[in-house]
Amino acid sequence: MSRILSLIAGGLTLAGVTAHAQDDLMNELQSTLPQEKNYAFATFKSTRLIDGSSVECLGAGVLDFRISHRFGPISDGISTLYGVDAAYTKLSLDYGVTNWLMVGIGHSAFNREDDGSIKIKLLRQQLGGGSPVTITYFGNTAVETMPAPTLPDSTQKWLFSNRLFFTNQLLIGKKFSKTFSLQIMPTVVHYNLVDSAKFSNNTWALGVGFRKMFSRSSAITAEYYYRLTNTNMLVNGQKTYNTFSIGYEVETGGHVFQLMVTNAQGLTERTFIGQATNSWSKQQLHIGFNISRVFTVVKPKGYKGKDWDDKDGDDAKGDSDKKVTPKKSQKAPKSKVSDDKDFKPSNKKDTSW
Amino acid sequence: MKKSILMLGFLALGSTAVFAQKYMTRTGKVTFDATTSSSPEKIAAKNNEVAALLNAATGDLVFQVQIKAFKFEKQLMEEHFNEKYMESDKFTKSDFKGKITNPADVNFTKDGTYKVTVAGKMSMHGNSNDVSVPGTVTVSGKKVTLEAKFKVKLEDYKILVPAVVGDKVANEAQVNLDAELTQQ
Q: What is the pLDDT of residues B81-134, one digit of tens each?
């Protein structure tokens, strides 16, 4: 009896010692590793929230092609098919030079503006210590290319600099949870030429926007730019209003679709932040959408060349590789390991989403 | 009786044997591929920062894998992997704690390749499972190379594949391990 007891005790101690030993080994391993920093990512689904920019930048080597469409005001009624006939489009291309530097160009039909932008991610939000927010700088220069107006005094020339608008924004965003992100956007838009000395050449504004996900791939968004100065700005004699937009976005494989309702029809910062002539109170709302598609132009390190960069030929191979003819260059054969049986993917997928 | 108590006492003191040989790496490689035959794009990634520690005396073996260190060809796929599938902001790493079940078959002092089975607990995405994986241990002087190929069923770790991409992402991922550990 005592022998059996001591054997059991021995066995239990051994098991306890083994599990304990493995935990000790794991602790020992972890003590040699550098402290991992957990940076927030995917704060927003796209580099644009609705009209304005979000704190996100593209990854290095990624190209984003975007089509933005804003219909005319619904309040125009059936005469323009609730705005469908009076649509303006913007095409833009953004490119991630590095993970923290993005450049972009765009062309808007509204005011016939071309613009170039630069976006620099200055600080990343860290979970569990470090910075509580992500801070990104966004700078944009827009040039309006409408034909020069005829001036009353024919000796005066229409200067090129009259056509320029400069926007500087500091985007400060925080991912509060997996489903909710918020950002504030202190902004200054500089107008080289304004219609009257009564208006300032600088419009200072504070924007705020958020994104709330309600499924793995879709979210509702909202964006509001509150002008601190220059609210008396007129455009062709018309009053201007602060811009408020609400949107819905869906993400599929490589596309992000954003649908929105807004009171600004323009798509450059100088129009949708400082010069929106339609208002929510008069139901002069524009329905619009953005479609964004990303392409990998420069593959990351380790993936250069025509195929996956598998130098020693021992990377995992899934079903798609079974169709490919084996590579000619083989390393000296390693000892054979018994592979699992051929795997056939089942067609039954988890449909809990 | 007294002798067995004494022996138990020695065992209980822990596994710090006098001549403990430990082998470690911080640059082990794990690759996985979860592409279906009908997928237009490859669903695969590699991680070259796998940390492993092997106690040659006892056969205990631990691995730690940072989920964010898996690199994909497409940055967007990497973002989806982290955000939607692995939820790596919540579950930052995956680990394995186990041991070589046939330590007597391996001679760490003699160069050569030895077939082993490693059994233990694998944790990923907040879920753990007992696994047993066949592999090889190749001894070459002060270096020990561990290699293994095995399959991981995504649902075992509650990694959900939405029906939308069901024809692209497979139910099981083929995982390959290739880690060269150096004697400490």
A: 999 899 998 999 999 999 999 989 999 899 999 999 999 999 999 999 999 999
**Residue keyed to tokens 């953004």:** A94
Q: CA A137 from chain center: how many Å? A: 14
Interface check A22 vs B, CB under 8 A = yes
Q: How many domains does chain B have?
A: 1
Taking CA–CA distances from A315, the nearest residue in chain B reads B31
Mean pLDDT, to the nearest integer, of A160-187?
96
Q: How far apart are CA A140 and CA A166, in angstroms?
A: 6
The pTM of the full predicted model, rounded to 2 decimals, is: 0.81
Q: Which candidate from B75, B84, B120 shows the least CB-CB separation from A216?
A: B84
Percentage, residues of chain A above pLDDT 90:
61
- CATH code assigned at B57: 2.40.128.110
pLDDT at A151 over 70: yes
Residue A149's pLDDT band, with cuts at 50, 70 and 90, is confident
Residue of A20, A320, A346 to mutate, testing the B interface (most B Cβ within 10 Å of its Cβ): A320
Q: Are residues B11 and A300, on separate chains, in Cβ contact within 8 Å?
A: no
Helix (H, G, I), strand (E, B) or coil at A182: strand
| Chain A, window 174-233: residues with a beta carbon less than 8 angstroms from a chain B beta carbon | 178, 216-217
Amino acid residing at A129: G
| pLDDT beneath 70, residues of chain B | 1-2, 4-20
Burial string for A267-302 (b: 16+ CB within 10 Å, else e) reads: bbbbbbbbbbbbbeeeebbbbbbbebebebeeebeb
Residue of chain A with shortest Cα separation from B167? A347
Task: Specify the 3-state DSSP secondary structure of A103.
Answer: strand
Classify domain A62-149+156-296 at the CATH topology level.
Porin (2.40.160)
Comparing alpha-carbon positions, the chain B residue that sits nearest to A8 is B8
The encoded tokens of residue A331 equal 């390393």
Q: How many CB pairs under 8 A join A and B?
A: 207
Strand partners, B174: B33, B151
Cα Rg of chain B, angstroms: 19
Structural domain contains residue B72 = yes
Tokens linked to B76? 């967007």
Q: SS3 for B29? A: strand
Q: How far apart are CA A130 and CA A145, in angstroms?
A: 45
Locate tokens 């509650």: which residue? B158
